[in-house]
Here is the input.
Amino acid sequence: MQSVPAERILVADDHPVFRDGMCRLVASAFPHADIVEAGSVDEILALASGGAAPVLFILDLMFPGMDPLATIAALRGQFPTSSLIIISMADDAETIGRVMRQGADGFIGKAIPSDAMVSAIKAVRSGDTLVLVPETASIASPPTARQRSQDFTPRQRDVLSQLAMGKTNKEIGRQLDISPFTVRIHVSALLRILGAHTRSEAAEKANALGLQ
Here is the structure.
């Protein structure tokens, strides 16, 4: 019987010590995966294109000579079905918003404890959209229920309703006749508006506020 090739996970960071530590964390979470590591933008592109497409990218936001948003957008366009996580020390709301709008599925602050980081990576690999930063980093100001209601567009309400039913981005896209990429953008906006870290938390907060 022909063996099934191991899924590939690409870990990229230009600091060897952090990259090695991240590879160890990822290996503990996905023991049967083929983990490849990159220390430059050129290595990211070469490894991603050489062989089976990675099922998961875990990338530092900053590399020397890298245009972060252009690189994220390019990888999202080339690998639309792969999960893409950005890990960075720069965890301000503006940076997170730009990254998520370019197509990232998750954003994790480097100061997050390793066990929480592993759980977050697993959640994104399972299809969640997630932002996880230290409590001291504000993702969004905590608006009132009335302000939150006004902040939602009709399309965001549609997406939130589907999200609350536990549907994936692909399922939401089919239901609303929009692309999964567009759904990802709406989900990212919903997380920021509600101050939520995960899809399930966003759904719970919306339900508590009567916004679904």
Notes: Residues 136-147 have pLDDT under 50 and may be disordered.
